[in-house]
Design goal:
- By secondary structure, this protein is of the alpha+beta class.
- It folds into two domains: 446 residues, no CATH class; 132 residues, Heat Shock Protein 90, CATH 3.30.565.
- It is 73% helix and 6% strand.
- It has 22 helices and five strands.
- A five-stranded antiparallel β-sheet has the order 1-2-3-5-4, with helices on both faces.
- Helix 1 runs parallel beside helix 6, helix 2 packs parallel to helix 10 and helix 19 runs antiparallel to helix 20.
- It is elongated, with a radius of gyration of 26 Å.
């Protein structure tokens, strides 16, 4: 296995290890939609489904703002973690929570005004649906704070490899949501108000179970309120906005599509669209989770200027994520009729076949969306705001709303579904055309498709990558590192120290880290000649271990204990250790005097 394949394999293992919790996290809102839709259609009526559908664009707006904060914070923190700038990490964490709370309070006031004063007439002309929607909106005031703070907590817990806590909180939310819907809707007959209250109180369970980690001081993240650097709030929003702009545009798109359906199809069309989207929203958690784990690795790789890891993320997306999503989409298409029966049981009703066709056509969007979402994330992390905004505008509103306006009058409900598929095709073409224009030729490899600048990171002749899987591989490391340094004009003494240090640290990981469990492991080594220094980076997927702690340990009966580690730490100009996304990352800087 060559070094590129080994690194791709490690990145793939990392992404799939993080994926289950991120999928579950992305599925939380969708599970609420399914539960709400089930109780609304079976215990309240089709009008209640219309109310749930009307809330979709407003809920999308809340989710958009949360995505701005979470996305900007995750990317900034990933960059700062990649550079080991801990003070800036804590500042971003604090700003995220403060802004989330303030924005949540503003939305609560807005919901109260719209619901209590009956100011929702611009959304629907149906008096029954409007009355239900007002009560649903009032109930949603309970959910805004835990929704925004819970999403932020989940992102930061993932960065420090505490997915288990988020997993437990997600299961707690799902259980609470189902029980509370049974209580409020089926037993107490609170109708639309009960639907919203069940969601909101369930979200508080989700937030509370995660917040315990931060409140108990068990997290590496700390809230700093004394001297927050507010200027970074602008940077946080600037980075997060392009990636979430699509959601913002989707808010407007939802309003436009709902109006088209009301005019040309009727309330049954809105109900069918809401039912299909509520269940498909659960499946959208797959690409959402895939993007979440990729975003964490992409942001850290940008901070480290690691070209190889960036392209490996995209390779994993094309080779593994995309086929998986294609198989899931095909399964949904084949099961369109039984899935429809979850919400509507009478095939004679027009809403039944409208929903069936939603399950047959909308899943085609998902594989296309995975491609666009990953490239948008990379562009967002690397500062390409222009193309991010353009794609968000096209994907978020122009294509879907435009195609819908053209197709709905003739094709009815199916016009909306077809418009969504065409939107995905156009978005993928934009990705390819952007790379074609920037490279002035059709992209021939992953780096060209991503439009990674030539000066990003270090050139191929300034670095060497190695992969270690056994102690036999360690033996050759010192000689390979020395040869690389000598070829770069580094003095023999510095080359010898660099080779000795890399062999000692890699051997320490193989000897101690590999034996901690029965899982297969590998060590990713990188040597970089930068300026007058040689930078050694050792990355492994073993249990968390900081060698800085062991190097200070001596034993009275064995003065030679850990002597190798102590020697390396004395020779190095600087030593940094981090555990990022469950990977141990040790960086040593050796003085690289040239001959």
């Amino acid at each position: 296995m060559n070094e590129q394949a080994a690194n791709t394999k490690m990145i793939g293992k990392l992404l799939f290890r993080l994926l289950p919790v991120q999928i579950l996290l992305c599925a939380i809102g969708s599970v609420n939609g399914i539960v709400s839709s089930f109780f609304a259609s079976n215990f309240v009526g089709i009008e209640a489904m219309g109310a749930v559908g009307l809330y979709g664009p407003i809920g999308m707006l809340v989710s958009t703002i949360s995505t701005v904060l979470v996305g900007g914070s995750a990317i900034l923190c990933g960059k700062y973690l990649g550079r080991n700038e801990q003070e800036k990490v804590q500042n971003v964490f604090s700003l995220n929570l403060i802004l989330s709370l303030l924005i949540s309070l503003a939305f609560i006031l807005l919901y109260l005004a719209l619901g209590l004063l009956d100011l929702t007439g611009f959304l629907t002309r149906d008096p029954v649906v409007r009355q239900l929607f007002n009560r649903y909106l009032l109930g949603q005031t309970v959910s805004v704070v835990p929704q925004m703070l819970g999403s932020s907590c989940a992102a930061f817990l993932s960065l420090e490899n505490r997915q288990g806590r988020t997993f437990g909180a997600s299961l707690g939310y799902i259980a609470a949501n189902i029980l509370l819907n049974f209580l409020f809707v089926q037993l107490l007959r609170l109708e639309a108000l009960g639907l919203a209250l069940a969601n909101g109180l369930g979200m508080w369970v989700f937030l509370g179970m995660q917040a315990q980690v931060f409140l108990a001081g068990k997290s590496i993240f700390r809230i700093t309120l004394r001297h927050p650097r507010w200027e970074e709030a602008g940077e946080l929003l600037r980075i997060g906005l392009p990636g979430a702009a699509g959601n913002l545009y989707q808010t407007g798109r939802g309003l436009i599509v709902n109006k088209l359906l009301e005019v040309f199809v009727g309330s049954a069309g809105i109900s069918a669209f809401a039912a299909a989207n509520s269940l498909l929203g659960l499946l959208w958690a797959l690409p959402g989770g895939m993007l979440a784990v990729s975003r964490m690795v992409i942001s850290v790789s940008v901070g480290e200027e690691d070209r190889q890891s960036l392209t490996d993320v995209m390779r994993v997306m094309f080779r593994r994520f995309l086929p998986l999503m294609g198989a899931v989409s095909l399964a949904v298409i084949l099961c369109a009729v039984p899935l429809t029966r979850i919400f509507y049981r009478d095939p004679a009703e027009s809403v039944f076949m409208m929903t069936v066709w939603g399950f047959r056509l909308l899943p085609l969007c998902m594989p296309l969306a995975i491609i666009c979402m990953h490239f948008t994330c990379y562009w967002q992390s690397s500062g390409k705001e222009g193309i991010v905004h353009l794609l968000a505008l096209l994907d978020g509103v122009v294509c879907v709303a435009g195609f819908s306006a053209l197709l709905v009058p003739a094709a009815g409900m199916n016009g909306v579904y077809i418009a969504n598929v065409l939107n995905g095709v156009v978005s993928v073409l934009v990705v390819v055309c952007f790379a074609w224009l920037k490279n002035r030729r059709f992209p021939r490899n992953m780096a060209e498709l991503m439009v990674i600048p030539e000066d990003f990171g270090v050139s191929a002749d300034e670095r060497m990558d190695l992969s270690i899987r056994s102690m036999e591989d360690v033996v050759a490391v010192s000689r390979q590192v020395q040869r690389f340094c000598l070829d770069r004009g580094i003095s023999p003494r510095s080359a010898y120290l660099a080779g000795l240090s890399m062999e000692e640290m890699a051997g320490n990981v193989v000897e101690h880290g590999f034996s901690m469990d029965r899982k297969p492991h590998s060590v990713d080594l990188r040597v970089v000649h930068k300026g007058e220094d040689v930078i050694l980076r050792i990355k492994d997927d073993c249990v968390p271990f900081d060698p800085r702690e062991r190097q200070a340990i001596t034993a009275p009966d064995d003065p030679a204990k850990n002597v190798g580690l102590r020697l390396v730490f004395r020779m190095a100009k600087d030593v940094q250790y981090q555990n990022i996304l469950g990977l141990n990352v040790l960086t040593l800087r050796i003085g690289g005097q040239t001959r």
